[in-house]
Specification:
The chain has 136 residues and is mainly alpha-helical. Helices cover 74% and strands 0% of the residues.
C-alpha cells in the first residue's frame, strides 16, 4: 500500500521539488514538433491537387503545434515551480497525447492513404466516361 501511495504522490505532487533535468530535451522536442508541423503544412499545400491527402491530414499541423506549445508551457511552468501546472502528471498527459497523434497520423499516411488513393483513382477512372450534366 505504501508503494502505491508513494507512486501517486510522486505523480501528483503539486510542486515537484527535485530539479528538472530534461528541460533542454523537452524544448528540443517541442521545436522539432513545430518545425515538423510547418513542414507538413507546406507538404500538404504543395500537393493541393491530392484531395485525399488534404482530407486525411488536414488537422495534423494544428494538433502538433498545439502539443509543442503545451510542452513549452510545461517547461516554463516547471522551471518557475508553478503549483499544479508543473505536476509530472501534466507532463505525462501532454506526451501521451503527442504520441497518440503521432501514431494516428502515421497510420493514416502509411496505411489508410494508399487504400483511399487507390479507391479514388478507380472512381475517377470509372467516372471518366460518364456523360456530364448540361448547364443551361
Amino acid at each position: 500500500m505504501t508503494h502505491i501511495l508513494n507512486f501517486l504522490q510522486y505523480r501528483f505532487q503539486a510542486i515537484p521539488f527535485t530539479p528538472f533535468k530534461y528541460q533542454y530535451l523537452m524544448l528540443a522536442i517541442a521545436i522539432i514538433g513545430i518545425i515538423a508541423s510547418i513542414a507538413l503544412k507546406i507538404y500538404i499545400k504543395k500537393n493541393k491537387e491530392d484531395k485525399i491527402l488534404k482530407k486525411l491530414l488536414k488537422s495534423a499541423p494544428k494538433k502538433f503545434i498545439t502539443i509543442s506549445v503545451l510542452l513549452i508551457l510545461y517547461v516554463l511552468a516547471r522551471y518557475e515551480y508553478m503549483a499544479y501546472l508543473s505536476m509530472r502528471f501534466v507532463n505525462f498527459i501532454i506526451i501521451g497525447f503527442g504520441i497518440y497523434y503521432l501514431i494516428t497520423y502515421f497510420n493514416l499516411y502509411y496505411k489508410v492513404y494508399p487504400i483511399e488513393k487507390k479507391k479514388h483513382d478507380e472512381l475517377v477512372q470509372n467516372n471518366k466516361y460518364l456523360p456530364r450534366k448540361k448547364h443551361k
